[in-house]
Amino acid sequence: MAAVNKRSPAGAAVLREDVTSAIRQAVMQELAAVGYGRLSIEAVARRAGVGKTAVYRRWSSKLEMVLEIVSEVASQSLPLLDTGGLRGDLEMLLRIVARALGHRLASQIIPDLLAEAARNPKIAQTLQDALRANQRQVSELLIGRAVDRGELPAGTDPDAAVDLIIGPIYWRLAVARTPLPKGYVTALAASIAAALGAPSSTPP
């Protein structure tokens, strides 16, 4: 049987990863600069250094483009090393979240998207699904470790833990936009551990 010469797909089937990456970065930069309401495909393409057709080959609309890219960013797993104790794990997680929320792009994009979510159910659902799944995964890992160590009772609710862990730091940085004072994260980690039911003698 004669060999069949395979050719790489051409035209719309070819989606270069470097172009896709440039567009994704441009979307985040545009969101930070002008917000979702004023964001346009034309501006994204111009910032990415590509034509509008390159964007439309990947996404059919502004909404689809933003939802996919933001969802991927929001659902990225947070690194969570085992420090050997609940308070240490909490403090490390809080510092990671604080750094992420304090990033220039995140601090501009998150409030804008939350405002849009109040008007657009698709944006609201996408953000809720991506963030909640990621937060629950982190919480289950952190709480699971503490239960295994005997620091927390079995059956500790990971969803309640997410609210206790993320709520205060998110309020300070994303809503009130207030800088964290020195020692705040350490004190907050201790307070959360106590609220979850960990013994006060748990080492930091």
Keywords:
Arc Repressor Mutant, subunit A, disordered N terminus, 2 domains, Tetracycline Repressor, domain 2, elongated, mainly alpha, 204 residues, single chain
Intertermini distance: 70 Å
CATH first level of the largest domain: Mainly Alpha
CATH superfamily of the largest domain: Tetracycline Repressor, domain 2
What is the number of helical segments per DSSP (H or I, 4+ residues)? 9
- For the secondary structure, the number of strands is 0
Mean pLDDT over all positions = 85
Strand content: under 5%
| CATH T-level fold name of the largest domain | Tetracycline Repressor, domain 2
H/E series, N to C?
HHHHHHHHH
Task: Let me know the largest β-sheet.
Answer: none
The CATH architecture name of the largest domain reads Orthogonal Bundle
Q: What's the overall geometry?
A: elongated
How helix-rich are the residues, as a percent range?
55-70%
Radius of gyration: 21 Å
Structure description:
This protein is an all-alpha fold. It folds into 2 domains: 13-70, Orthogonal Bundle (Arc Repressor Mutant, subunit A); 75-196, Orthogonal Bundle (Tetracycline Repressor, domain 2). Helix content is 68%, strand content 0%. Helix 1 packs across helix 6 (104-117), helix 6 (104-117) packs across helix 7 and helix 7 (121-149) packs across helix 8 (158-175). The longest helix is centred in the middle third of the chain and has 29 residues, at 121-149. It is elongated and about 60 Å long. Mean pLDDT is 85; it is low at 1-13.
